[in-house]
Structure formats: structure tokens, C-alpha cells
Amino acid sequence: MADTHGGSDGDFDLTQFYQVFFEEAAENLDQMEQMLLNLDLTQANDEELNGIFRCAHSIKGGSATFGFTDVAELTHKMESLLDRLRRHEITPIPEMVDVLLESADASRSLLARHQAGDTGDAMPTADLVQRIVELAAGSSPAAPVAAQPAVAAPPPVASSAAVAVVADAPAAVAGSGERVLQLKIGPVDNLASVDAVKELFRDIPGLGSIEDQPCAEPQYRLFLVKTHSSNEDLLDLMVFHVSKEQVQILEYDAPSAVDRTASGSYDPDAGLAEVAIDHVQPYGIFDGAPGAPGIAAAVAHEGEDAKPVAVKTAARPNMAQMESTSIRVDVKKVDQLINLAGELVIIQAMLAQNSQALDPTANQQLLAGLADLDRNTRDLQEAVMSIRMIPMSTVFSRFPRMLRDLANKLGKKINLVTQGEATELDKGLVEKITDPLTHLVRNSLDHGIELPEDRIKAGKSDQGTLTLSASHQGGSIVIEVRDDGRGMNREKLLNKARERGIDVSDNMPDNEVWMLIFAPGFSTAEQVTDVSGRGVGMDVVRKNIAALNGSVEIDSVEGVGMRVSIRLPLTLAIMDGMSVGVGNEVYILPLSSVVESFQVNPADVSTVTQGSQLVKVRDEYMPVIELERVFGVPRTEGDKRSDIMVVIESDGSRVALLVDELLGQHQVVVKNLESNYRKVQNVSGATILGDGTVALILDTSSLVRKSR
Amino acid sequence: MTVLSKNTENTPSGTREYLTFRLGEEEYGIDILKVQEIRGYEQPTRIANAPEFIRGVVNLRGTIVPIVDMRLKFNCSKVEYNSFTVVIILNLRNRVVGIVVDSVSDVMELASDAIRPAPDIESAIDSSCILGLGSVGERMLILLDIEKLMSNVDMGLVASTE
Lengths: 708, 162
Prior knowledge:
The complex is a heterodimer of chains A (708) and B (162). With 708 residues, chain A is an alpha+beta fold. Chain A folds into 5 domains: 11-155, HPT domain (Four Helix Bundle (Hemerythrin (Met), subunit A)), CATH 1.20.120; 160-321, Replication Protein E1, Chain: A (3-Layer(aba) Sandwich); 331-388, Helix Hairpins; 391-569, Histidine kinase-like ATPase, C-terminal domain (Heat Shock Protein 90, 2-Layer Sandwich), CATH 3.30.565; 574-707, CATH 2.40.50.180. Chain A contains 22 helices and 23 strands. In chain A, a hairpin with a 2-residue loop joins strand 9 and strand 10 (476-483). The model of chain A is unreliable at 1-11, 141-176, 254-322 and 527-535 (pLDDT under 50). Chain B is mainly beta. Chain B has a single domain (22-150), classed as CATH 2.40.50.180. Chain B is 9% helix and 45% strand. Chain B contains 3 helices and 11 strands; from the N terminus they run H-E-E-E-E-E-H-E-E-E-E-E-E-H. Chain B is globular and about 45 Å long. The model of chain B is unreliable at 1-11 (pLDDT under 50). Chain A binds chain B through residues 339, 342-343, 346, 585, 630-634, 671-673, 675-683, 686, 688, 692-696, and chain B through 43-50, 56-59, 61-66, 95-97, 156-159.
């Protein structure tokens, strides 16, 4: 609730969802690689090709959403190739697998670069793209080898982070981050070949400058380099021209702790010390210092250098830790865990019940153990249940981008505000609520929010505000889609309903009029756009939500805006129940729908037409449902009569259930009755009681409907 | 498994194992591979408005399992629940169902040539659910296609409109 974040168009904070995407993408890449490797080219089956296609497709979708265009472009090309393959328009050849694998590697390295915060040189993919296009066109690429260097040298994340300093600030003059180094290259046979290194500095903008320096030793060359890059990066860059062993990098500048991060660690002590005497000294760094202290100083540097390096590597495990804080587990495993925990709770309840008769003094230890077991099993169940809970932000995260694109398309200005993203919801519900919510959001934007000029005419700011919020209310979660658009017009809705032959009257209460939009095929949009207006969808929205045991409410004021609130149970697997007894049978009522209970005075019950009864509760009359009659509970002579009323509420109306007794309140594990049996009227599921027997859970909304 | 769903005429040769049980005076056999376990009878939770032969549901280690009393379904004259009453838990195509029988006799191997097609007789069960009659010495077994029988709409285990 507390965490509210708003974003104006073009400024949505997507970064918080990056991690999920990177995890998924990595998983998809791994899967794709595996499938590519297992692919039998001679008889590639459609399933495998489709699988690979799907992987590429999901990566493409994700990276496009998050704006990683380079990855999206590459995967898009891969997708095109795979698409032609799975349509059997071209036959698979080994080159294709090669290029796809290379592309997967390239995507991985591009993603790694994005993950490291878009730092460092992006890996060139033009060549790969070219090859894929050629293959997709059906021709074999002329020189697949040509692409090798590009693939062979993906900038590793670690080094690219350092190159970043250069890439991000190419214009920076020799300032705090710049280092002056001496580069000693040799022994080489052809000194001219080293000129290629100089060209590197000329070709790569922002790398720095390089100057020739006189060198006393034959077969060696000396350069003075000013750069922001780390030694490792320089070595990586030069690797095509000279081997790493031939290069020595030496500090030239007066060392300062800040500048020397990650420097000098590459060279062995001896080399540094030796060069310090032979070459550095003549250039005045250690002017006046005798030879021996020179070595000492150089070695001391090495010691100092070790520190920043240590800091750098220490930062790495930290990152690794961040990556491993979440693991992806098959939902089936989690569900199995939940089932087992549920079983444990039942057994524990059974033990607790059976131990009640025991003498507390004689069995003190046993009873203390059982009390501990009680606490532990409940904690365990709660912990296990929480595994399935995921924050609403996973749903809300889809909207910023979608809204932005949609707003651009419709020429509207929109500001999205999300509230309560940390509110947690069962994973199963999150998946099922996404589509209805998407529909409502689209609807709000298309029909609700007006065009900027209309808004100004109506005296509002030209920017519409759409608010998505989630909050816990009692045992349920309430998700709201609010907009400050034009709201709904009562007359228009009623007219439209009449046109469609829906039975309406002019004095219907507002909330019933609003509910008309959930009727199948109902749309008041003047014109059908490709966004919405076809009238399909709102009825599906309501159906989907009802299937989750949820309800929808609409509130609207014309010209001011509209609010759709969806109320859902927190989880489908566990609920708070109230057990009631009728005859010898036990039924469970969802506690969330129980309003109150009371012992009924026969004088308050009045019979109206056809034997249906009404009970007066304070100043309200409500229909009475005799559970005994609804469920045909067998009665034996001498049984006590039902005289307890439980008032339940659903969809805004209330009824009183007549039961024999109230047995208690407890959490129940909801079991599906339909998995082995079939749907039973007025029953939403079953649960297992403390004594191991089954009790049916009443479907309050159907009971309430029945009374109408 | 697939063999069972076919008619007796084209059952390939080879022996199958059948679990035999008694309902009143009759002895029945069902494919042993469909049987998950055998339990004693315990009072199920009644389900409102269900046919009489569906006794209700029980908790089988966390799974809600409907219990069908075959004796009521097959119109046996005497139906009583005592300590010998047995529930056979069947595992049929992702569904777990319990059937109440008077007693379980044994497991028998029957070669396909020991199975005779059932004569067309008027009975409480759909004759297409009877695989045939097996003869073991003096005894006669009525072999049931239990999968077909249980998925019949009139068993009330599945909704009539799906």
C-alpha cells in the first residue's frame, strides 16, 4: 500500500522487473541450446522446432518489452529462420544450428551487458544477423568463419564494466579517472607490426591516446598511453596484434589511490620492479631515488594495488549472491509440499483431538510435545503457503509499456499510478487475473480517458490518470482499476441495453446499470477500434473473475471517472471457515462471507408466499434458507431443531442460513470435489476435518442466488 | 490396458489377472491393474441429492474419493455394512473411485480362451460393460469393464453434460 510509484509517459521504471526477465531469458537460452544440440537434422520433428521457436520468441518478446532492442533484433532474426524451418520451407542444415547457437551465445552476452547496467561495448551482431538472413533465404553463407572473431571475443561482463567508463564519457578530458601508463611491448621480431596497437587507439573512440617513446632495448617498443580503461581491457583489445605475454603495462603517473583501481595487478612483481628501474626512473617518476628504494617503492605499489583488486573481487560474490536468492521450482513440487503440509495439519488436529481425554498430569510431556507440534505444523503450513504467494507487481509490471504504446496509438496522454504492488497473491490467481485486468485497463484507456483536447474542454488536465491498486481487505484482495475519464452515461447504457433486447427499467439502481456492460456483446463505443469496442471481453472478464470465486463492482460518475474493483480470495488452497452442524452432518461456510449469527426467535420469522420465509434482523428482512432442506439432511426423532441463523453475504445481498449449531472456526484446506467426482450444487469444494472425515464447503454465492 | 476396452471377440490370446469379489451371490472379476488398494469400509460423508448408490465421499490420505456401493447399483437384495464390508479403491484414468463390495475373494489368472462372451441378458448394468464370463472350474466369473462402467453417465460420477 505504502509503495506508490507514478510514472509519466516515457518515464516508466521497468528496471525492477529486469531480474525476472534475465532469469527467464537465461533459462530460455539454456533450453534452446539444449534443444538445438539434441536436434536431429535428418529428421527434425516439429515439436522440437516449435520448442526452439518458442524459446526465441519469448526472449524476443521480453527484450522488446524492456527495450533491449539489440537482443530483440537478433532473436527476431532467429525467430524468422526458425519459423521457416518449422514450416518446412527450408531444410535444416548444420550451419543453421551453428549460427543459432552462436546467436544464442551472442544474446547471452548482450543480455549480460544489459544486466551489468548497459555498460561496455555491445557485441557486434550485424554479421550474425547477416548470416541468419542468408540462411533463412535458403542460401549457405559464403564464409561462416568470418564471423568467428566476433563471436570469439564477446566482452566478458567483468571487463566491459570497466570499459564503460570510457564508453560513457568519451569527451572527458584527462581528469580524475584517467591513467597514464607506459606500455612495453616485446620481444617482437617485426617492430612495425606493433603499429597496429597504435591504430587501435585511433580507431576506438574514447579509448585514450598513445604516443611513441624511445626504447633502449632492441625488439621492444615503448608507448605512453593515457586512458580510462583497465589493464585487462587494454590487453583484451591488443590480443589480436600481440600476445599477452609480450605486453607489460606500467604505471607512469604519480600513483593516487583512486586512479589505480584494478591496475598493475596483471604484471608479476619481478617485471614491474625491473621495469621500474630500467625505464620508469629515467622519465623522472622516482627522480633522485636510488635503485634499491625504487624497487621497494614499486613492490609497495604492488602491495597497495592488491587492495583495490580485492575490493573488486569482493564485489563479485555479492552479485552472485543476488543472482541466487531466488530459485525457479516447478509449481507441482510446491503444490505437493502444500498438500503434505495440509495432511500434517490434519493429522496434528487428529492427535490433538484424541489427546484431549488424557490425564494432563500423567501425560504432561506428551501434551507439551503435542502443543509444540501444533505450533510447528501451523508455522510450516504458513511458510509453505507463502511460497506460492507472489507480489502484484508481477502483474502491474506489464502495464506501463502497454499503456504507453496504446496511449501513443490513440493520441491520448496518460499517467499510470500503481499502488500496493507489494500485496501478495497466490500464483494461480495472479496468472488468471492478468488477462481480465489487461482488458479492464485497455477499456479504461480506450473508452474512459478522453482525448487531451476534450479533457481541457472539460476543465481537466490534459493528462489522464489511470490508477491500479491492490490491497488486502479481510480475507480477500481487492484490485482496482480507476480512471479520471468520462465515466459512463446511464441513459446511453440503458438505451443500448434496450437495443440489445436486455430487460431493463429506468429506475434501476446505478450499480445494476453499470453491471450491464458485462452482458455478452455489449459495447457503447461509437466506433470499433482495434483496441476495444467489439463488446467481447467484458463478459469474459466477469466470467473469469467469477471462476476465481471473485466478484466485480463498478462505480462511475459521468464526467469524473470510473472505478472497477475486483475482489478475490487470497488463495484458492486455504480459507478460513466456520463449521456448522445440521443433524449429524458438518458443513463449512467461508468465514469471509459470514456476517453474523444469532439464535432466532420464532416470532421474527414470517412466512410469505409459497412457504418461503423471511427473518427480521434489526430493521432488515432477509430470506431464510434452511440448510436441512437444501441438503436433505436425514433427521431422527428427538433431534434438536434448527434454531441458529447465520447471515451470509454474497454479491451484495444477504440471506440467513438456518442451522442446528455453530461448531467453530478454523482454517481449512480446500480440496477439489470435482477431481474425482463432479460438481455438486451449492457446494464449492470439500475439506478434511480434524477427525479425518470429509466436510463439504458451501458455495455461498450460489446459495444467495438461489434465494432470489 | 487397451485390450480391456475392446470387445471380447478380438481380445488377443494371453492371460490377464483379475481381482474377484462377491456381490451377494454373484462373483465378479475386474482387471487387477485398475485396482489401487483395498480398504475396510468407513462411513463416508453424504452428498446431498446424489443417487442412493453413491454413499458419499471419504478422505483417502488427502484425496477426496467418492464411494459407490455396487450392491445398491446392482440391486442386491441384502445390503449391510459390517466389519467384512470392503472398499476397492480403483484408479481409472486420473480418477480415483471406491466401490463397496461384500468381500474380495482372490486374484485369478484367466487365459483369453477361458472367457466366453456374455449372453444378451436383461440386467441392472449395461451389457456393454460386461467383458464376458470367465469359468474357473465350477465357478463362474462375471468380468466387468470397470472403467466403462464407472464412466457411464448413469453412474452419476461424471456430470451428464461435459
